[in-house]
Request: fold
Amino acid sequence: MSTFFELLVAGEKEIYARSAAQAFFKEIDRLERLFSRFDPGSEISMINRLEPGETLPIGIETYECFKMSFELMAATGGAFNINFRAIKNKQAAGSGQESRPEKEAWVELFPLELLETQTQYLALRLEGSAYGLDLDLGAIGKGYALEVASSLLSGWEIDSFLANAGESTVLARGKEAWPVTVGGGFDFLKPGRVSLKDRALSGSGHEVKGEHIYDPRGRQSQSRQLAVWVSHPSPALSDGLSTAFMVMDLEEIEEATAAQPQIWTLVVGRDKNCYWFNRPADFSQDI
Reply:
């Protein structure tokens, strides 16, 4: 994940809140050791070193994050793909499929299958992949980490908090809405704050890193949208969808959100126009 996390707790004594926060950050550190591709001992790094046909036992957290990633890949027609680095590297080497595949062919870009047994969870790398494996959970890992670590706070009977992952995904819980700063510099977001209650909010764009979001389907580094914000009760899903929608066109986003009223999406297109999908009826910069 390689980013910073913050936690704000309301309505508790300072000593108690600090103890709960320590448990929260300890869990974040544990998940970092599982998910970081920069740590050679992480489960992600060990999976990336698998040879074709080999299997590797993995923990429940990696299994759950992979399962969510698979579901997002299917739901977005491959626009979301945690194996995008392998595809990008293959393209840079001058080989690999150059034309955009059909939506149902996204599985060909991801040579990994999850196997579930009664005693353990296994990751299986399939034979015959043209792209190899170079997994990166950067587009969903921090949201998943927020989801898991925040669930620990219920054991502390803490129900009012705001958790932040790298200023790109935030999760608000509590009876009262939390004010959240929104970046982007677009006029329609001034003064730059929204109120968030019992939901997550994730944003993707070019304001900080420039053009950096790769479309694994079209093999291109220029996204279709300038910025995307997605709100959903799950921070893992809002995190992943905000990245996927950056490389999807408006018709694809509309199709993906049509049957999912919990997904609230604001898109700034290349034409700098604003497009809402599933906008709440009572929206007034309160999400």
